[in-house]
Every structure is written in C-alpha cells, then in structure tokens.
Known about the structure:
Structural class: alpha+beta
Shape: globular
Largest sheet: 9 strands, mixed
Bound molecules: fructose -6-phosphate, magnesium ion
Strand content: 25-35%
Radius of gyration: 20 Å
Helix content: 25-40%
Number of strands: 15
Number of domains: 2
Amino acid sequence: MKVTISVIKADVGSLAGHHIVPKPLLDTAKENLKRGKEEGIIKDFFVTNCGDDLELVMSHRKGKNSSEVHSLAWEAFNKCKQKAQEMHLYAAGQDILKEAFSGNVRGMGPGVAELEFEERKSEPVVVLMADKTEPGAFNLPLFRIFSDPFCTAGLVIDPKMHEGFNFKITDVYTGDMLQLSSPEEMYDILALIGTTGKYVIKEVSKKDGTVAASVSTDKVNLIAGKYVGKDDPVAIVRAQHGLPAIGEILEGFSFPHLVAGWMRGSHIGPLMPVGLKDAKCTRFDGPPRIVALGFQVSNGLLIGPADLFDDPAFNNARDMANFVSDYLRKHGPFMPHRLSAHEMEYTTLPQVLKKLKDRFINEK
Ligand code: F6R
Ligand code: MG
Ligand code: MG
C-alpha cells in the first residue's frame, strides 16, 4: 500500500517581527493534526517551524492533492491565524491569501511538497525547510545531490544510481513544465536552473520512475499579485538504497550558496544550514536558513525526527555564511546584494519609484 508524505507550510504570524513561530501557534497546529489523526485522515504528523514558517509534516494513505488532507492543513492554518490575531502577533495570517477553500491549498498561499511511494523495507526521508528565500534556492543543492559526482559518490560507485536521474523543471511564471534527463542533458538542465527566480526543480525521479524528491514551488507574490514576502520553500528527499545517502543529501548544503530573499525578500545572501534551535532569522532578518529533519517512515508512521544540520560538521558552512554575510552587507542598498530591477518588481520598491516618475526630464 502506498504512503504519501505531505509537507504543507505557511507563515501565519510570528513573534517579534518575521522572526519565529511562537509555541502557542505550534500547539494549535498540533491539536488540529491530532484530531486529523484520530479521525483517520492522516496516519501521523510532526509540527515544527523554520523561522516564521509553520510546517506540517504529515503521512497518510490518501495520495497527493487529497482534499481531506489539504483541508485539514487549511483548518490548522486558519486556527493558527485566529490565535495569532488574538495574540497580536506580527503579520498574523500572512500566507492565508484566500477565503473560500475549494479542496486544495495550492494557489491559496501555503507551500506544498508531496511524495507518494511504495514504502521500502526501510524508508529514510529528509524534510528540508527554508526561511527567507525562494523555491529556486533548492536548484543548486538538488543538482549537486542528484547530478554532481563531486557531491554524490553513489553516482559513480553505486550501480543502482549510475544511470542518473530525471529532473522535472517548472517555469514559475507560466506554469510550463518539462522533464530532462541527467547526465545526458546535464548542460540543458543547468542552462535553465541557473535562472533560479524563473526555472525551479519541482521533482526528481529515478529513470524507472521511482520518485526521489519534491519541492514546493508555490510563489506567494505571484498568487497575491503584490509583495507578501518570499516563499520560504520546503522539499522532501528520499534517501539510501539506490537513492542518495543521507550524507550525500546533506553534503549538497555544505556550501552556503547565495540565494534570493533575506531582508524584505530583496537581497542576495548565503543559505545557512542550521539545527532547529537556530532556525530563526535575526541579523538583517536572516541570513536565510535551512533545516534538515530526517525521518524513518515505518508502516506509514513517522519515526523521528533527527535534526541533521545540528552537527559541528556544518560549522564551517555556517562560518562561511557569516563571513559572506559581512561582505555582502557592506554593499548596503547596492546591487548585487540588493536584487535586480526585474526581481524588485515583486517588492515594495516600485511604490517608491512611482513617486519620482514625473521628476525625470529628458535631456537628449
Ligand atoms: C522577508 C521578510 C522580512 C520583512 C521585513 C519588513 O521575507 O518577511 O524581511 O520583509 O521585516 O517587514 P514589514 O514590511 O512587515 O515591516
Ligand atoms: Mg513572516
Ligand atoms: Mg518566512
């Protein structure tokens, strides 16, 4: 029997600015999912947060895009929104963009990553959760994990991985999707996914169709039609036994690459891998963070999690992220620390520029 892992997340309000989800909200979400478990909608769940994003990790038998599971998550977020409003938390209900629910949270504000698969004899999965960045932040590490033999030794050594993986890539503006095959079409993959704000890896699978990874690609600003913050994506990656080992997945994040997001969703900054205790964005509302939680899926239940970046082995990555943060911050409001004009269209800058429009005089 197949199991589905759904990670559904939303920013429904936070403590002391866009900083961290406080305990009463986590408790409210847990109560709701507990009810969903008792009613048999989900098999198991884990509620957590990365910075100001509340993440619901759920296992169930209802398949992807299940209206029952999505409606359970939607109710949980709405209860949390209510609680956040009562507590006068900051940006209460930020990602609840629509009122009427029609069976699926996609396009309503929350981010969704889901994987449905036949549970193996032993099924390790990693749930990755980021704050203060966008879905394209996963492009580089996922490429490294599933395509780069300098990251993933199994691509060279393991006969079960040697033929490579397929990448589903989506254009987040048009919704167009295509599948490309690695290593054969590796350069085509890179030609697209290097443009992280537009082309985003949505799924990775083995050549026989076995699903390996799924990313939330929902763009809140495009849904809302105005600046609401960055999307703060999540991803699910299956590990081991013909798929990348846990350590190969984590290795993809050992280099704190530059991503779009950080302060006001308008800056480039390094993606810092952290344990849950450090999953809170402070300096200049950042730098952007990523958490990795390891679970064993066992008869549909979630055993764990293991807080995988809570390890001194990632100290160098964190130190490098701090060093790069210092360097970038010295640029203040200048590009390339601040995003390009095109990317700034989805922030509050155009409102400022509008004021100056009529003061330009053409001297040509
Ligand atoms: C980034 C983010 C924050 C806010 C910033 C200003 O995704 O959420 O950096 O953009 O704190 O927030 P407001 O406009 O709410 O004061
Ligand atoms: Mg927020
Ligand atoms: Mg956030």
